[in-house]
């Protein structure tokens, strides 16, 4: 995951007790996350010792039918696209070269999984989040994807809904902290 507090992440497409228990039992590395489409209170009893539900990270499973829009960076910003190990990264920079907003996407057949979309606080409310999302969508469509999927925070959900994404379920976030 590239973050000290997120060694790895398991994402379950369905929140069945046996699947949650099996995924959690397979983990031995601290700070490994498990996300599943479920209410946090429903998944909590299925977690073995050492696992906790992180209410702050619990969010929403969202999806959209993708379409290309050929986005242009907001005035004063530039963007780059880079692919490494099957993940494509969008990075936007301000006129001084400082990082302003980022996001990434991985293609899994006809699905595109969008992750880690962040706009630095001093650059918010300038259209960068929408630009990053549209750039990721364009890349995914060019790669053959037709459906986008992501896990959103409450704050992110508001942006994604303005771009046509729909919330389909709560997304419980659990972390292994032995």
Keywords:
178 residues; 10-stranded mixed beta sheet; Aminopeptidase; 21% helix; single chain; globular; 2 domains; alpha+beta
Q: What's the quick description here?
A:
By secondary structure, the protein is an alpha+beta fold.
List the helices and strands and how they pair.
Blueprint: E1 8-11, H1 17-25, E2 32-36, H2 40-43, E3 51-53, E4 59-65, E5 78-84, E6 87-93, E7 99-108, E8 111-119, H3 128-142, E9 147-152, H4 154-162, E10 166-176
Parallel strand pairs: 1-2, 8-9
Antiparallel strand pairs: 2-10, 3-10, 4-9, 4-10, 5-6, 6-7, 7-8
Structure description:
The chain is of the alpha+beta class and 178 residues long. It folds into two domains: 8-60 and 171-176; 67-145, Gcn5-related N-acetyltransferase (GNAT) (Aminopeptidase, 3-Layer(aba) Sandwich), CATH 3.40.630. Helix content is 21%, strand content 39%. The chain has helices at 17-25, 40-43, 128-142, 154-162, and strands spanning 8-11, 32-36, 51-53, 59-65, 78-84, 87-93, 99-108, 111-119, 147-152, 166-176. Strands 1, 2, 3, 4, 5, 6, 7, 8, 9 and 10 form a ten-stranded mixed beta sheet that branches. The longest helix has 15 residues, at 128-142. It starts with 7 loop residues before the first strand and ends with a strand. The mean pLDDT is 93.
């Amino acid at each position: 995951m590239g973050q000290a507090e997120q060694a790895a992440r398991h994402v379950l497409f369905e929140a069945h007790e046996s699947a949650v228990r099996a995924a959690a039992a397979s983990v031995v590395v601290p700070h490994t996350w498990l996300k599943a489409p479920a209410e946090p209170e429903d998944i909590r009893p299925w977690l073995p010792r050492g696992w906790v539900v992180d209410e702050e990270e619990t969010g929403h499973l969202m999806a959209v039918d993708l379409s290309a829009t050929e986005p242009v960076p907001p005035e004063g910003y530039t963007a780059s696209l880079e692919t490494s190990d099957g993940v494509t990264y969008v990075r936007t920079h301000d006129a001084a070269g400082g990082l302003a907003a980022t996001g990434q996407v991985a293609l899994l057949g006809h699905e595109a999984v969008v992750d880690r979309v962040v706009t630095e606080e001093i650059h918010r409310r300038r259209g960068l989040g929408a630009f990053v999302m549209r750039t990721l969508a364009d890349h995914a469509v060019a790669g053959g994807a037709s459906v986008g999927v992501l896990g959103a925070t409450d704050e992110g959900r508001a942006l994604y809904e303005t771009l046509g994404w729909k919330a389909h379920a709560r997304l419980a976030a659990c972390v292994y902290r032995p």
